[in-house]
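**Backbone description:**
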Amino acid sequence: MTYEEYEKKCDEIRMKNADYLDGFREDLFNAGLKEKTINRHCQNADFYINTYLLKEEPLEMICGTNFSKIDDFLGHFLIRKCMWSTPGTIKSTAASIKKFYNSMLQRGNIGESDYRVLIGTIKSNMDYWLKDCESYSDPEAPNPFIFS
């Protein structure tokens, strides 16, 4: 794929993602959440589907439910590449992603099994991600991403 083809595909995906995010925003509003909370959830979901999933190859929103993608994003990318990451941001970003994909499930944009994989991955790995984030942020602790 040429760079131009990559960019064209990313633009197509971003347009679809904008519709998904609009629906997500509507669902959060209808649930009675405050504007600040809605904005935070939408920003977190947008970062995942429009930054992370498009960084190496143009991946559709549905690919974000894949075990390896959500594990890499919350357990590596967010910790190592985002200076603002803390155990708290890992948790809040995971909560936003779960809410986003629940909205996608309710709207028929993903299947039940895709959603279950996402939820199961987050549930079973959260403690590891939080521990790694804590260690990575502590200059006195060993780097959890260096293999010995």
Summary: The CA atoms of residues 29 and 35 lie 8 Å apart. The chain has a mean pLDDT of 94.
